[in-house]
Amino acid sequence: MTIYTFDDPGRLVSPILVAAFDGWIDAGGASSVAATHLAEGGRAIATFDGDTLFDYRARRPTLEIAHGRISELTWPSLDLWHRRIGDRDLLVLTGAEPDFRWHAFGAAVVELATRLEVALWISLGAIPAAVPHTRDVHVLGSASRPDLLLGDVEAGPAGILRVPA
After folding, report:
1. Which terminus of the chain faces fewer neighbouring Cβ atoms within 10 Å, N or C?
2. 3-state DSSP assignment of residue 111
3. Strand 62-66 and strand 78-85: pairing?
């Protein structure tokens, strides 16, 4: 049983996959906002099944109320987005960090990356730290090659991005 639906984008050119999730390792929304920005203008090609991955008691859907009436209910989501930038393809995996089935999720992501022939993987995160609000939020990064990241890269506690498939 697969935990995602897939809309095949066709043959991609050396796709780069950027992954970032909101949740614990996303201080100030730094990594998820960056990933969402990268995905703008793209389309979702894989959508993960929230009912199998999320604890809705801990991560409740949000309710929009307009003029005293319920106007929209938005469920937590986790999607793989595709967009073309120049002559390359960009894939962005972003949304809510799963609460459950980390191993199955990791295996599904590896399956998608293999199927789409991902050439490079870059993950983003931001560890919450007890620092004054006047200091920068440190963003964690990892990539398929160390020379792809510039600046200081910090290690920290494991989130879903570090779970082997």
Report:
1. N
2. helix
3. unpaired
